[in-house]
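Before relying on records like the one below, remember that each one covers exactly one chain. Contacts with other chains, cofactors or solvent are not represented anywhere in the record.
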Amino acid sequence: MRSKFLAATAVASLAATASADTVMMKFAGPVSGRGITVNVNGTADTVFAGLLSHQITSGTGAGASLVGSLESYCIDVLEPLSFSEFEFDLAELTDAPVTPPPPAPPTATINQAQADAIARLYTAAAGAQFGSNADFNAAFQITLWEIVNDFDTASSTLSLTAGDFQAGGLNTITTGFVGDLFAAATSDSIGLTPGLRALTSLTQQDQIFQIVIPLPTTAGLAAVGLAAIGLRRRR
């Protein structure tokens, strides 16, 4: 059974980005998550969904402040991810390309509705996506993929079994977290986490990073109901 290590959503402290802002980055390995099956625009595969680690060895402009270890989640589902170094550009989240299975070129960029749904997802998770709960980390990645591939203003719906992105092979705990995160991402009552940007490459998985890292707190999690849910499912 073939498994890809998929990444993206880098987290760091960073100023506003420009076209000259780049980083040299390589994949360092998975941190926490689950193996799942996916179908993207008719292409099926077995992938790793969860939190991953990267190493940034150098950067230009604002990218220089990212040198060091970096944890991340993925925008692209089936794009490659390499242990070799590749250059990534820093961009606005709404400039990040949406890429179908290789070798097809990008078909669109993340739209504003999708960017807002992602920002609500970060607010709801309140830092828990960078913890060690493998089921939650897998659910967070799956929700990101679903938003990028299927969410739009007209339908405002998310589903694991319909649309361009579909996921299977989930255990009941991960499925439960996915439902909670789907609800959070589409809720008008949840605020938008500011400062989300993208790391993009023509040959590697594109990524999202966050300018400000919110510290996970019990109060923050309880505010959106995820703390109690997480404790219940861990028992």
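Confidence is low (pLDDT under 50) at residues 1-19, 212-224.
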